[in-house]
Each structure stands twice: as structure tokens, then as C-alpha cells.
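Hi C.,

You asked whether I'd gotten around to modeling the 66-residue construct. I have! Everything is below, sequence then structure, no commentary in between.
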Amino acid sequence: MKTSEYIVFTIGRLPKGYVFTYADFNVEVERKEAVIKALNRMATSGKLVKVAKGQYYKPKGSVLAN
């Protein structure tokens, strides 16, 4: 599974309103930078909201929202 697919899958399983961090993704150390970059790209595109450094949540009406 690609890193981006894994991120979308993991975020989709999280409850609405849950603020998540990099630690919520179970990845090897060498893939951590890819997770960070992907989350930042998703925040820039509006799919996620960045609350603070390393903290995100799904906005209502998001493509990723359940």
C-alpha cells in the first residue's frame, strides 16, 4: 500500500472531530517524513485542517469524512 493510500485509509477510520498527530500512523522511521509531507499537502489542499504543528483534523464535508 502506498503511503498516501495508507494515510487516507487511517484518517477515514478516525472519529469525526478527533485531532490526530503523526503518532497515529504506524509507519517505519524511514516513512515518517513521507507521512508528514503528505499530511501537510492535504492540509494545504483543504482536505485536512492543521490545528498546530503536527496536529490535524478532518473538516466537515471533507472528501475523507465518514
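If it helps when you're writing up: Strands lie at 20-21, 49-52, 55-57.

Thanks,
B.
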